[in-house]
From TrEMBL:
Pfam family, one: TctC
Entry similarity comment: Belongs to the UPF0065 (bug) family.
Taxonomy, superkingdom: Bacteria
Annotated PANTHER family: BLR1237 PROTEIN, TRICARBOXYLATE-BINDING PROTEIN
Residue intervals passing through the bilayer: none
Name this polypeptide is given: Tripartite tricarboxylate transporter substrate binding protein
Signal sequence interval, chain numbering: 1-28
Keywords recorded for this protein, A-Z: Signal
InterPro entries: BUG, Bug_dom1
Taxonomic source organism: Ramlibacter rhizophilus
Amino acid sequence: MRQAQGFTRRATLAAIACLSAVALPALAQQGEGSGWPRQVVKLIVGYPAGTSPDLVARAISDPLSQRLGQPVIIENRPGAGGNIGVDLVAKARDNHTFGITTNGPLTTAPKLYPNLPYDVKKDIQPLSLTATSPLVLVTGTQVPADNLKDFIAMAKAKPGSVTYGSIGVGSGSHLTMELFANRAGIEALHVPYQGFPAVTSAILGGQIQSGFMAPSGALAQARAGKVKLLGITSPSRSTLAPEVPSIAEAGNMPGFSAELWTAAIAPASMPRPIAQRLSREITEILRLPEVRQRLFEQGWQPVGTAPEGLTNRIAADTKVWNDVITKANVKVN
């Protein structure tokens, strides 16, 4: 009987020890989330001020600051098509740093950059798909093409003579033109820039003829008569720019579709309760009518997903755009 009691006592103590081993780390993680944030929160944007992801970051930073009770400071760290910004987020260890980026650094960069300093699956923690936008094909007013069919005919008449800008090799604006050129049967010369404002300036100045751009950077210029919009990459006309025909329609390219998106990401090292708090706050902010209206006016469709939604989008787009990269033989110098 004593033996049985001793065995029962030992078994109980062992069970308590096992439960403690499981529960204590979980409690510690909860503790890491309580009382957060304890300092200024840094929001890294891997593109210059005034670019599309920067506009999205600025739309959510003030409401987020109010909700967190700490300043949210935007730090623009442009370069390498947004990869520098994502790398800085991946390497942050203060639990008070996250980022806003575009699709390229999360979907196409691993294929384009063999020595990419971060691993999307291992180093990045998805927070939310924040906003989406089709792209518009923009040309300067001096370009002798007033519609998409004329543009394609012009490009075919002198192969390789048409120039276009993008926000970097492997970016959505670059690969969308590669997809378009393949479907249209044309050749075009690529000139990369650091952001859409620089692409716009080059088109206005006549240094390049065209480019696929986010509506946020193109609609105001078009409505002022400074550029022409020949087509939009949504499957049909978009509420963002209802006056612009879809490329599928205007170019007789059934099924043509391409989309730019922005996302909130955190380092994989950020404790899960903190990441969940950030994800939840960002998603709720993107439901606010004033934020939605602000983003819509800038050419963005607010989304706001759970982390799993962004994870799935990264996987799906990685497959689509990697196929484009392979077919177009896109290389980063």
